[in-house]
Amino acid sequence: MDIILVPGFWLDASSWEDVTPALERAGHRVHPLTLPGLESVEADRGGIGLRDHIDAVAAVVDRLSEDSGEKVVLVGHSGGGAIIHGVVDARPDRVARAVYVDSGPLGEGGVINDELPSDGDDVPLPPWELFEDADLTDLTDELRVRFRSRAIPEPLRVASDPQRLSDERRYDVPATVIACEFPSATLKEWIAGGHPYVGELGRIRDVEYVDLPTGHWPQFTKPVELGEAIRAAVDRDR
């Protein structure tokens, strides 16, 4: 099966390099993406918005689905969760499953994070002090240095553009939530209580939850376990 890996903010395709082996050993075709504006620190990020990232991923979905005649699996980490949900909305008939890695679907009108410090058209990786302690669980000093050395500024409008959705068939696409910072029990409590943070997630008809306790970047802190969790989710659709 074709698996498209969409990174979160400040990351490119290489951020999945320690996750993909488990998927490839299982016989899957893995496609980690570098999204527009994330090609390099020097890339022009002016004018790149959330819809540009959604459209870029949708184009890959179209190509792979047309080549194989099969549906694809989308995996989105952090802000990538909003992007893959936009793609599910745009291509509900071409997605077998959406896997949200320490993320979730962003509903109509929501923004990923418009409070991050920006510099012109760029949103650089903030100082660690601006993150919650739970974000940084298991992210050692060595991993922090490696992360910051590879970080690429995020296009400002990807963080601040509102999500636009139009096809309610998105709720019929099965989803897996790999819960890292917050345990799945907490997410279920929020859904039951009508918390707006999980309002869109609560509308999806078929959701499974997988707990992978660590910080916000499991592709760095627990990459092998993350690869196995994604593999298990994908194999349910074989």
In short:
The protein has helices at 20-25, 50-68, 80-90, 141-150, 156-160, 184-192, 218-221, 223-235, and strands at 2-6, 29-32, 72-77, 95-101, 122-123, 154-155, 175-179, 207-211. The protein has 238 residues and is of the alpha/beta class.
Structural account:
This protein is of the alpha/beta class. It has one domain (about 1-235): Alpha/Beta hydrolase fold, catalytic domain (Rossmann fold, 3-Layer(aba) Sandwich). About 30% of the residues lie in helices and about 15% in strands. The protein is built from eight helices and eight strands, in the order βαβαβαββαβαβαβαα. The protein has helices at about 20-25, 50-70, 80-90, 140-150, 155-160, 185-190, 220, 225-235, and strands at about 1-5, 30, 70-75, 95-100, 120-125, 155, 175-180, 205-210. The chain has a six-stranded parallel sheet with strand order 2-1-3-4-7-8, with helices on both faces. A two-stranded antiparallel ribbon has the order 5-6. α1 links the parallel β1 (about 1-5) and β2 (about 30). The protein is globular and about 40 Å long. The protein starts with a strand and ends with a helix. The mean pLDDT is about 95. This is Alpha/beta hydrolase. InterPro entries: AB_hydrolase_1, AB_hydrolase_fold, Sec-Metab_Biosynth_Hydrolase. Pfam families: Abhydrolase_6. GO terms for molecular function: hydrolase activity. Keywords: Hydrolase.
